[in-house]
Amino acid sequence: MDIKGKVHEVAPTQQVTDSLKKRELIVEYVENPQYPEYLKFEAIQDRCNLLDNVKVGDDVEVFFNLRGRPWTDKTGKKSYFNSMQLWKINILSGAANNTTPEYAPPADISSAAEDDDLPF
Q: What is the dihedral angle through the alpha carbons of 26, 4, 44, 50, rounded to the nearest 10 degrees?
């Protein structure tokens, strides 16, 4: 699945257990401008690094898998949880894509010698 939106928040990487780390991304999704949605995606393990160059305000396209699982509490009541696990992200526009290319400073042609022998 994929969705496009604007980055609202990028959380730092959390070491959940010795073998599990995760990082959360909150994306503002505006299907109806009157009621924007804030969707939480999670990147796990090596995919946490995918969010290193993502900045708040970037327009992004997020590719994810929708996951669901049951959980039974101590009283026997069953609940269901959903998560959206990010596996790829494209920065469409924003701070990461608007870098200004570096150029050499312009040459000062006013100090050029008057007697150069160039044919033009």
A: -100
Determine the Cα–Cα distance for residues 64 and 90; give it in Å rounded to an integer. 12
| Prediction pTM value | 0.73
| 92, β-bridge pairs | none
The single-letter DSSP state of residue 12 is P
pLDDT computed for residue 105 by the predictor: 54
Q: What's the gap between Cα 55 and its chain centre?
A: 6
Two tokens, residue 26: 């909150």
Residue 94 pLDDT: 73
